[in-house]
Amino acid sequence: MINDPVIRRPKHHFETANQPSGVTFDDGDARTHFPWSHFTLMRYSYSEPDVIKIMIGEWLVTVRGHNLEPLIEAIEKRSLAKLRAQPELMNDRKYEIDSFATGIRLQPKARGADGQPAQSELPFFR
């Protein structure tokens, strides 16, 4: 008998819901919850296909991951409820077809002397 791999549907390693009030990011050290009403901007660059940058409230959330298109769609629809970094999945071939985050970085938006966002800290518009 030939040992063929089992063909399965890609799995999304994040949680979605119908109209969640907010989204929780778990970077492995802490969970941080943001209300969707504070969502401002998402940026995905084709030159960096493994990175999504999200501006939500006073925070810049940078997500690194694998096969991010389903995650991008969940963010666009505001249906993303919870995302946890799972870097261990990157080294296992059985997750090759799945969508997951390998790292999440939360940074407060930098402020200038006038209290406005500092121009040098807006990587979205370069």
Structure write-up:
This protein has 126 residues and is mainly beta. The chain has one domain. It is built from one helix and eight strands, in the order ββββββαββ. The strands form two sheets. A four-stranded mixed sheet has the order 1-7-2-3, with helices on one face. Strands 4-5-6-8 form a four-stranded antiparallel sheet, with helices on one face. The chain is globular. The mean pLDDT is 88.
Query: Looking across the biggest beta sheet, what order are the strands in?
Result: 1-7-2-3
Rg result: 16 Å
Biggest sheet statistics? 4 strands, mixed
- What share of residues is helical? under 10%
Looking at the structure, what is the overall shape?
Answer: globular
Q: In angstroms, what separates the terminal alpha carbons? A: 56 Å
Overall mean pLDDT stands at 88
Name the helix and strand elements from N-terminus to C-terminus, one letter apiece.
EEEEEEHEE
The strand count comes to 8
Helix-and-strand structural type: mainly beta
List segments where confidence is low: pLDDT < 50 over at least 5 consecutive residues.
none
Number of helices: 1
- How many distinct folded domains? 1
Q: What proportion strand?
A: 35-45%
